């Protein structure tokens, strides 16, 4: 991408209903709900929207369905679906489209009813001739392979992975919208029902309904709106494989490429981030991403998260909404991670607000560690 740092801004951000939504609601209902809320957030109207970006596992042609539902005919649209990181990818594409004059008000939207209809119905598994005969519990078994390999190579422990879940729960307890409402201990994680060794059910993300939307405009247009714009400083995206059996190294993800791209574009480093939002479908993923994004050396992720370092009051404000482990995980989580990053920079995060937050990173993961996309946001004084 050759987009210019800070040339576009997020001016609207909103979640749809979350958790277990009303009966008979569809993914498109949730997308439309989030879009309306995000537009109200920035004082724009549906008639202003001329760029539409969306994906979901439950609707085959999501941009068509959402445009029809909203009654709009966007001049630019994108239905790229690379799993949970799709929305970070959409943001990068929207950035380029706005700069190129292909649209002026871009909306990125997501919705899922995977809790209401069941995960199997929402995200049916494709047959894989090389893996399906072994009857893996996907996607969990794929991430379990990565966790086991990391433990073998670097001495990472189950207790260290459990720290990720415990910290997420502590953040979630300060978030009134979070699904989980009870405290969690390391022993609770370790003694929970085993899903795919070494991952217990508490090492795995939630299964919820939900969605969200972002509204992006040029930096120039943002100045004409009565909002606090949050600027896009950098982004990077990469694909590495589709099947876990084709992953070159089970402990090195594409974040090792997308992260440096984003940091180079933004002209900053991990040390500059006040808030970090990492896709936490499983407790191993933040550990991998902290390493690959450059927050700590490869193999040190387990030790890095230990001792409450990523919990409230720790040295790194990580997954401050409670993450996919304790806040909400409607199948493809990346949208909600970006919303949290934006709201933290706007100072709208209530009890979990990080004081003086000026820069935030949101990282998305898709498939079985297959796609990795990184976005860096900043307040006006960082541009």
Automatic annotation (TrEMBL):
Keywords: Transferase. This is Acetyl-CoA acetyltransferase. Residues 236-379 form the Thiolase C-terminal domain. The keyword Transferase applies. Gene3D superfamilies: 3.40.47.10. It comes from the Bacteria. The lineage of its organism: Bacteria, Pseudomonadati, Pseudomonadota, Alphaproteobacteria, Hyphomicrobiales. SUPFAM superfamilies: Thiolase-like. One of its GO terms (molecular function) is acetyl-CoA C-acyltransferase activity.
